[in-house]
Structure prediction request, 274 residues.
Amino acid sequence: MPDSGTELYLDLLKRCLLNLIYEDPRIPFGWDVDASEGVYKNFDLESRLNGSDWPSTAHTMIGMRRLDNIQALFEDVLATQTPGDLIETGVWRGGSTIFMRGLLKAYGVTDRTVWVADSFEGFPHPNQEGVSARSFSSPGLAEARTGPPPAHVQVILDRLMQGTSYADVREHFARYGLLDEQVQFLRGWFRDTLPAAPITRLALLRLDGDLYDSTYDALQALYPKLSVGGYAIVDDYRTFVECQQAVHDYLEATRTKVDPHDIDAEAVFWQKRD
Prediction:
Protein backbone atom coordinates (compact mmCIF):
# COMPACT_ATOMS: atom_id res chain seq x y z
CA MET A 1 0.00 0.00 0.00
CA PRO A 2 1.24 3.53 -0.72
CA ASP A 3 2.24 5.69 2.21
CA SER A 4 0.16 8.73 3.13
CA GLY A 5 2.38 11.14 1.18
CA THR A 6 2.06 9.07 -1.97
CA GLU A 7 -1.69 8.72 -1.52
CA LEU A 8 -2.11 12.45 -1.02
CA TYR A 9 -0.02 13.31 -4.08
CA LEU A 10 -1.85 10.89 -6.38
CA ASP A 11 -5.25 11.97 -5.08
CA LEU A 12 -4.40 15.63 -5.63
CA LEU A 13 -2.98 14.86 -9.09
CA LYS A 14 -6.24 13.20 -10.12
CA ARG A 15 -8.27 16.11 -8.76
CA CYS A 16 -6.13 18.58 -10.69
CA LEU A 17 -6.29 16.59 -13.93
CA LEU A 18 -10.09 16.49 -13.64
CA ASN A 19 -10.09 20.13 -12.52
CA LEU A 20 -12.17 19.41 -9.47
CA ILE A 21 -10.25 22.32 -7.96
CA TYR A 22 -11.68 25.16 -10.05
CA GLU A 23 -14.66 23.29 -11.58
CA ASP A 24 -14.49 24.44 -15.19
CA PRO A 25 -17.73 24.34 -17.20
CA ARG A 26 -18.29 21.69 -19.81
CA ILE A 27 -18.38 22.10 -23.57
CA PRO A 28 -21.88 21.31 -24.91
CA PHE A 29 -22.38 18.06 -26.78
CA GLY A 30 -23.89 18.04 -30.25
CA TRP A 31 -27.35 17.18 -28.99
CA ASP A 32 -27.54 20.16 -26.64
CA VAL A 33 -30.04 22.72 -27.91
CA ASP A 34 -27.46 25.52 -28.05
CA ALA A 35 -24.46 23.39 -29.04
CA SER A 36 -23.87 25.29 -32.27
CA GLU A 37 -23.64 28.53 -30.29
CA GLY A 38 -20.78 27.16 -28.17
CA VAL A 39 -22.46 28.07 -24.90
CA TYR A 40 -20.69 26.32 -22.03
CA LYS A 41 -22.67 24.32 -19.51
CA ASN A 42 -22.32 24.58 -15.74
CA PHE A 43 -19.89 22.24 -14.02
CA ASP A 44 -21.55 19.08 -12.73
CA LEU A 45 -19.55 17.07 -10.20
CA GLU A 46 -21.22 13.73 -10.87
CA SER A 47 -20.71 14.03 -14.62
CA ARG A 48 -17.05 14.96 -14.18
CA LEU A 49 -16.39 12.07 -11.78
CA ASN A 50 -18.15 9.66 -14.15
CA GLY A 51 -16.22 10.88 -17.18
CA SER A 52 -19.46 11.77 -18.95
CA ASP A 53 -18.86 15.44 -19.72
CA TRP A 54 -16.53 17.33 -22.05
CA PRO A 55 -14.40 19.66 -19.90
CA SER A 56 -13.57 23.08 -21.26
CA THR A 57 -10.26 23.26 -19.35
CA ALA A 58 -9.48 20.02 -17.49
CA HIS A 59 -6.67 17.92 -18.92
CA THR A 60 -8.66 14.67 -19.01
CA MET A 61 -12.26 13.69 -19.60
CA ILE A 62 -12.03 10.05 -18.42
CA GLY A 63 -13.38 10.60 -14.92
CA MET A 64 -12.24 9.35 -11.54
CA ARG A 65 -13.04 5.64 -11.94
CA ARG A 66 -10.86 5.31 -15.03
CA LEU A 67 -8.02 7.20 -13.35
CA ASP A 68 -8.41 4.91 -10.33
CA ASN A 69 -8.26 1.95 -12.71
CA ILE A 70 -4.95 3.10 -14.17
CA GLN A 71 -3.55 3.42 -10.67
CA ALA A 72 -4.80 0.01 -9.53
CA LEU A 73 -3.43 -1.79 -12.58
CA PHE A 74 -0.11 0.03 -12.34
CA GLU A 75 0.24 -0.88 -8.68
CA ASP A 76 -0.46 -4.51 -9.58
CA VAL A 77 2.23 -4.67 -12.27
CA LEU A 78 4.65 -3.15 -9.77
CA ALA A 79 3.73 -5.70 -7.10
CA THR A 80 4.06 -8.61 -9.54
CA GLN A 81 7.16 -7.13 -11.19
CA THR A 82 5.53 -7.39 -14.60
CA PRO A 83 8.05 -5.86 -17.02
CA GLY A 84 7.35 -3.13 -19.51
CA ASP A 85 6.50 0.48 -20.19
CA LEU A 86 3.18 2.32 -20.18
CA ILE A 87 1.42 3.76 -23.23
CA GLU A 88 -1.76 5.51 -24.22
CA THR A 89 -2.79 5.70 -27.87
CA GLY A 90 -5.00 8.75 -28.27
CA VAL A 91 -4.18 11.23 -25.50
CA TRP A 92 -6.33 14.35 -26.14
CA ARG A 93 -4.93 16.91 -23.67
CA GLY A 94 -2.54 14.38 -22.15
CA GLY A 95 -4.22 13.79 -18.80
CA SER A 96 -4.02 10.00 -18.62
CA THR A 97 -0.36 9.92 -19.62
CA ILE A 98 0.45 12.75 -17.23
CA PHE A 99 -1.09 10.60 -14.51
CA MET A 100 1.00 7.60 -15.64
CA ARG A 101 4.16 9.68 -15.34
CA GLY A 102 2.98 10.88 -11.94
CA LEU A 103 2.62 7.25 -10.85
CA LEU A 104 6.21 6.53 -11.87
CA LYS A 105 7.35 9.60 -9.96
CA ALA A 106 5.30 8.79 -6.86
CA TYR A 107 6.70 5.27 -6.64
CA GLY A 108 10.26 6.21 -7.56
CA VAL A 109 10.24 4.11 -10.73
CA THR A 110 13.10 5.12 -13.02
CA ASP A 111 13.32 2.16 -15.41
CA ARG A 112 9.98 2.52 -17.20
CA THR A 113 8.84 4.98 -19.87
CA VAL A 114 5.48 6.57 -20.57
CA TRP A 115 4.73 6.64 -24.32
CA VAL A 116 2.39 9.37 -25.53
CA ALA A 117 0.95 8.39 -28.93
CA ASP A 118 -1.35 10.67 -30.87
CA SER A 119 -1.75 12.30 -34.25
CA PHE A 120 -1.84 15.64 -32.41
CA GLU A 121 -4.12 16.65 -35.29
CA GLY A 122 -7.38 15.25 -33.95
CA PHE A 123 -9.47 12.64 -35.76
CA PRO A 124 -8.71 11.81 -39.39
CA HIS A 125 -11.18 13.02 -41.98
CA PRO A 126 -13.64 10.27 -42.99
CA ASN A 127 -12.41 10.41 -46.60
CA GLN A 128 -8.73 10.74 -45.78
CA GLU A 129 -6.42 8.33 -47.58
CA GLY A 130 -5.83 5.19 -45.51
CA VAL A 131 -9.01 5.58 -43.45
CA SER A 132 -11.31 2.60 -43.91
CA ALA A 133 -15.10 2.75 -44.06
CA ARG A 134 -15.14 0.71 -40.84
CA SER A 135 -13.86 3.72 -38.90
CA PHE A 136 -17.01 5.69 -39.69
CA SER A 137 -19.68 3.02 -39.83
CA SER A 138 -22.14 3.70 -37.01
CA PRO A 139 -25.32 5.72 -37.55
CA GLY A 140 -24.43 9.39 -37.81
CA LEU A 141 -20.74 8.86 -38.44
CA ALA A 142 -21.33 6.86 -41.62
CA GLU A 143 -23.02 9.82 -43.30
CA ALA A 144 -19.82 11.82 -42.90
CA ARG A 145 -18.25 9.76 -45.70
CA THR A 146 -20.85 10.70 -48.29
CA GLY A 147 -22.09 14.10 -47.21
CA PRO A 148 -22.87 16.25 -44.20
CA PRO A 149 -23.82 14.12 -41.17
CA PRO A 150 -26.63 15.13 -38.81
CA ALA A 151 -25.97 18.53 -37.25
CA HIS A 152 -25.39 17.16 -33.74
CA VAL A 153 -22.82 14.70 -35.11
CA GLN A 154 -21.07 17.40 -37.14
CA VAL A 155 -20.61 19.51 -33.99
CA ILE A 156 -18.81 16.62 -32.29
CA LEU A 157 -16.73 15.74 -35.37
CA ASP A 158 -15.59 19.32 -35.77
CA ARG A 159 -14.28 19.34 -32.21
CA LEU A 160 -12.69 15.89 -32.45
CA MET A 161 -10.90 16.80 -35.67
CA GLN A 162 -9.32 19.81 -33.95
CA GLY A 163 -7.53 17.62 -31.41
CA THR A 164 -4.84 19.02 -29.14
CA SER A 165 -1.47 20.11 -30.46
CA TYR A 166 1.85 18.45 -29.69
CA ALA A 167 3.13 21.69 -28.16
CA ASP A 168 0.08 21.98 -25.90
CA VAL A 169 0.40 18.43 -24.56
CA ARG A 170 4.10 18.90 -23.83
CA GLU A 171 3.26 22.13 -22.02
CA HIS A 172 0.63 20.32 -19.95
CA PHE A 173 3.26 17.79 -18.81
CA ALA A 174 5.60 20.64 -17.93
CA ARG A 175 2.97 22.37 -15.79
CA TYR A 176 2.89 19.32 -13.51
CA GLY A 177 6.69 19.11 -13.42
CA LEU A 178 6.52 15.78 -15.27
CA LEU A 179 8.12 16.47 -18.65
CA ASP A 180 11.42 14.59 -18.72
CA GLU A 181 13.30 11.73 -20.38
CA GLN A 182 10.81 9.16 -19.07
CA VAL A 183 8.16 10.66 -21.35
CA GLN A 184 8.43 9.83 -25.05
CA PHE A 185 6.11 11.11 -27.77
CA LEU A 186 4.96 9.19 -30.84
CA ARG A 187 3.61 11.86 -33.16
CA GLY A 188 1.51 10.89 -36.18
CA TRP A 189 -1.13 8.42 -37.37
CA PHE A 190 -0.90 5.11 -35.55
CA ARG A 191 -0.46 3.06 -38.72
CA ASP A 192 2.75 5.00 -39.34
CA THR A 193 4.22 5.47 -35.85
CA LEU A 194 3.34 2.41 -33.78
CA PRO A 195 4.85 -0.43 -35.87
CA ALA A 196 8.24 1.31 -35.85
CA ALA A 197 8.11 2.58 -32.27
CA PRO A 198 11.21 1.56 -30.25
CA ILE A 199 9.10 -0.17 -27.60
CA THR A 200 10.38 -3.52 -26.35
CA ARG A 201 7.76 -4.49 -23.79
CA LEU A 202 4.65 -2.99 -22.26
CA ALA A 203 3.05 -3.56 -18.88
CA LEU A 204 0.10 -1.24 -19.45
CA LEU A 205 -1.56 -0.62 -22.82
CA ARG A 206 -4.34 1.96 -22.85
CA LEU A 207 -6.28 2.49 -26.07
CA ASP A 208 -8.32 5.66 -26.57
CA GLY A 209 -8.45 6.04 -30.34
CA ASP A 210 -12.24 5.70 -30.56
CA LEU A 211 -12.41 4.55 -34.19
CA TYR A 212 -11.89 1.19 -35.88
CA ASP A 213 -8.58 1.85 -37.62
CA SER A 214 -6.92 3.57 -34.68
CA THR A 215 -7.98 0.77 -32.32
CA TYR A 216 -7.06 -2.11 -34.62
CA ASP A 217 -3.75 -0.53 -35.68
CA ALA A 218 -2.77 -0.03 -32.02
CA LEU A 219 -3.66 -3.60 -31.05
CA GLN A 220 -1.85 -5.07 -34.04
CA ALA A 221 1.34 -3.13 -33.36
CA LEU A 222 1.39 -3.20 -29.56
CA TYR A 223 -0.58 -6.11 -28.11
CA PRO A 224 2.18 -8.64 -28.97
CA LYS A 225 4.53 -6.49 -26.87
CA LEU A 226 2.25 -6.57 -23.82
CA SER A 227 3.83 -8.74 -21.14
CA VAL A 228 1.97 -11.70 -19.72
CA GLY A 229 0.44 -10.32 -16.55
CA GLY A 230 0.17 -6.87 -18.09
CA TYR A 231 -3.10 -5.09 -18.77
CA ALA A 232 -4.98 -3.75 -21.77
CA ILE A 233 -7.53 -0.96 -21.31
CA VAL A 234 -9.97 0.08 -24.02
CA ASP A 235 -11.49 3.43 -23.16
CA ASP A 236 -14.36 3.69 -25.65
CA TYR A 237 -15.29 0.03 -25.90
CA ARG A 238 -18.94 0.64 -25.04
CA THR A 239 -19.18 4.10 -26.60
CA PHE A 240 -18.05 3.62 -30.20
CA VAL A 241 -19.34 0.62 -32.13
CA GLU A 242 -16.29 1.01 -34.35
CA CYS A 243 -13.94 0.60 -31.39
CA GLN A 244 -15.68 -2.50 -30.07
CA GLN A 245 -15.70 -4.12 -33.51
CA ALA A 246 -11.97 -3.50 -33.93
CA VAL A 247 -11.25 -5.24 -30.63
CA HIS A 248 -13.39 -8.23 -31.56
CA ASP A 249 -11.85 -8.48 -35.03
CA TYR A 250 -8.30 -8.36 -33.70
CA LEU A 251 -8.95 -10.96 -31.01
CA GLU A 252 -10.66 -13.24 -33.51
CA ALA A 253 -7.91 -12.83 -36.10
CA THR A 254 -5.23 -13.72 -33.55
CA ARG A 255 -7.33 -16.38 -31.80
CA THR A 256 -6.88 -14.55 -28.53
CA LYS A 257 -9.27 -15.12 -25.66
CA VAL A 258 -9.68 -12.46 -23.01
CA ASP A 259 -11.99 -11.76 -20.09
CA PRO A 260 -12.98 -8.07 -20.27
CA HIS A 261 -14.09 -6.34 -17.07
CA ASP A 262 -16.12 -3.13 -17.02
CA ILE A 263 -14.46 -0.09 -15.47
CA ASP A 264 -17.52 2.09 -15.89
CA ALA A 265 -20.23 2.56 -18.53
CA GLU A 266 -17.68 3.17 -21.29
CA ALA A 267 -14.34 1.45 -20.65
CA VAL A 268 -13.14 -2.12 -20.15
CA PHE A 269 -9.86 -3.81 -19.23
CA TRP A 270 -8.40 -7.28 -19.15
CA GLN A 271 -5.19 -8.97 -18.07
CA LYS A 272 -3.03 -10.75 -20.62
CA ARG A 273 -2.81 -14.38 -19.55
CA ASP A 274 -0.67 -15.95 -22.28
In short: Residues 61-122+163-271 form a domain with the Rossmann fold fold (CATH 3.40.50.150).
